[in-house]
Amino acid sequence: MRLQTLFGLLVGFVGFSQCVYAAEEPQVLAVASFPEANAFGQVVNGERNKLFLTVENNSDRNITITNIAGSFHHPDSNALVKNTSALAYGTVLLEGAKLQLPYTFYSEFKPGDLRLNLWVEHNTDGETYRVTAYDSVVTIVEPEMSWFDLKMWSTYLVVSALLGGLGYYAYLTFAPQPKRKTRPAPSVSAPVGTVTATGAGGYQEEWIPAHHLKKSKAKRTVSGALTSGDETSGPEPSVTEDRKRKGKK
Questions:
Q1: Which of 12, 59, 82, 138 is the most buried (most CB within 10 A)?
Q2: DSSP-assigned beta bridge partners for residue 70
Q3: 3-class SS letters over 76-142
């Protein structure tokens, strides 16, 4: 009878120990830090912000890292502002092992201070646990402007081209088109002045330069004088001289 009682107590103790062992949370340590290039822990809007999480399994059981996630809170009231995107892993971490994992997120907040909280979720023996890796105030800043930023200039050019094309299309569609003015055909005026005809054709003296008119008039005067001189030059032969010539013959 006593042996049965002792055996029952031993079985109960072993079962209770197993329950306590299963319910005990494994000792897992997680620490997050910014890269050396971002020693002050600034979170830049519109850019990919990166942290490194070091996870160490100090328990005697294997764990499976399921995901890494985080959230932003108000620094004074601790009110939730926004959750960050969760990054799934599914990596098995053996007992006593250490592993470093990267985590990136994007920020779109007003410049100022916010509290950043990052955690690691792992699964052990069917149970899910959460370990805090980072819980501190960070500074939200805008990206530095640079005149040699090709990405910024390309964005401006694309947007300007789109706006210009839309504006030109709207102008052609909605703006009234100007009416084209038709010019009347020039009227031909009748010639005014003295017209001198030569043969079948003719010309208008007022269109001819003055020095050409002077030359042509001078030529006509000289030719006319020579013609009249030829008609009056030399004495005409008399009738007596004609008879003498005939008698000699």
A1: 138
A2: 118
A3: CCCCEEEECCCEEEEEEECCCCEEEEEEEEEECCCCEEEEEEEEEEEEECCEEEEEEEEEEEEEEEC
Residue range 85-94: mean pLDDT, rounded? 93
CA dist 23 to 26, 58, 68, 159, Å?
9, 16, 23, 59
Q: Using an 8 Å Cβ cutoff, are 125 and 94 in contact?
A: no
80-83 and 63-73 strand pairing: antiparallel
Average pLDDT over residues 157-172: 88
* Ranges 50-64, 68-82, 141-155, 212-226: which has the least confidence: 212-226
Residue 149 φ then ψ, to 5°: -80, 105
Q: In degrees rounded to 5, what are phi and psi of residue 155?
A: -65, -45
Report yes or no: 101 and 66 within 8 Å, Cβ to Cβ: no
122 Cα distance to chain centroid: 44
Alpha carbons 16 and 71: distance in angstroms, whole number: 38
Residues 10-37 have a mean pLDDT of 69
pLDDT of residue 214: 66
Structure tokens that stand for 126 in this block: 């069917």
